[in-house]
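Methods — Computational structure assignment.
A single polypeptide chain was analysed. Its primary sequence is given first, followed by the predicted tertiary structure written as structure tokens.
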Amino acid sequence: ILGFETSKSYRLQNCEYSHMERSSSAQVKDVDNISKLPNDVLLLILSRLSTEEAIRTSVVSKRWEHVWKQLSHLVFDIPRIINSTELRDSLNRVDILITKVINNHRGHLESCVINHFPYHGVTGILNTWIQSVTCVKHTKVLTLTNDFLCQNPTNKIFDIPTNSFSHPSLTSLSLSSYILRSSHPLINCSNLKTLKLVLITAPEVGVFNRVLTSCPSLEVLVLDIVCVDNKSGVPLKIENNTLKVLHVQAMHYIDGIQVSATSLDILIIEDASFGRDGFFLRSPKLQFDRNFWAPGRFVPHMSYNISKEENSIVHEEFMNNIPRPFFRSVAIMAASMSVSVDLRNQTQVERLRQVLRLWTRKMMGLEIIFKKDYNDATTTEENSESWHKKFWKDNINKDAFPSAKFRVKTVWMNNFSGSEEEFAFASCLIKQGTVVDKMMIKTSSLPARKKLEIEAAVVKLEALQTEDERELTIHCF
């Protein structure tokens, strides 16, 4: 951004530098191979720079003057700009420069990030930026953060205008540190597939319910929300058959949550102010038996139905966006996970490995639900025998599954059948010392003959431990 203010000094320095080069060595020929590269390559170089640094390259030469204007990602972090430049005494100049950058940019944007001060909303310039990046730049991913730590000299709470985020090109919206006095800013947002509300406060839960009703096409929803008035007794209602990922980071002063989502594959609840009676879930793809509500507190929990699809939006969202905040917040707390996986499907097994490897501390509980889709061509004995036998053999003898560092206090297997791959999986967890305290295998719901088969398999699992390693107990329940 500062490139507009310093272009003259940069050109002067370049001229002085060129003069010195010519005078010191007349035989050396000036060669600028980088500038000869095509725009696509130059844009790839600029994409590794901050927005300010990329814009400053416009003063290098005429070749570079307009390259930055084709960038697909722009980031405006106003608090950092103010603290790191001489413009701290002139906020208005920064606002003018950001407006100029947005207007001079050419083409459409994949994403735009704006970290601003509260007064930008009061003066209306934030609304101007929002309109420009959505309606003119057709931004697909928009992230807005209100730096509430900066004092607002007007002491006014600003309102984002109605339908600010309903442009059809906008598919992902992240709002952080705002007060939603009504649902008007998010009315008619059927265009949104991803919505992240972080540190968002509303006067009552009905505001959030109306927002979610106005976003019927959501596939990913992240919530860290607070209600000022919790006397209504109305729960948060999420009814959406396209929703695949629901991540509840925190819900304060909300009496409960009702979720009806037939496509939901991932449910994460980190913190909840309501008890077991306030939780209702209708999601046929998620299966778990564990009670997350310990006496007097809620235990952070994650449920993941691993998909067999080669290109999974759910898994991509999980790996790229969920682990950092989730595992950072539960690192010093008890946390558990329920996962549904088909051990005869190579894609699902690899995804299970990736998920468990992200866990940096000892997991309190891991519930495994074995999927048994034997009618699926990808899970037939003919297609899976060669790879899964080699896979488990390699993991038992060489490579730890999921890693040598992963540890879990208790593992539950509710539908353990004793099949070859399930036995190999349990053997890996035992031999590697992955399970620290208990391995619980449910047999109470099985017929007597099958129960005896499972109990025989359990005896074999117990035999895998040496006398010195019998700290792990294996129980049937």
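Note: Residues 1-28, 374-384 have pLDDT under 50 and may be disordered.
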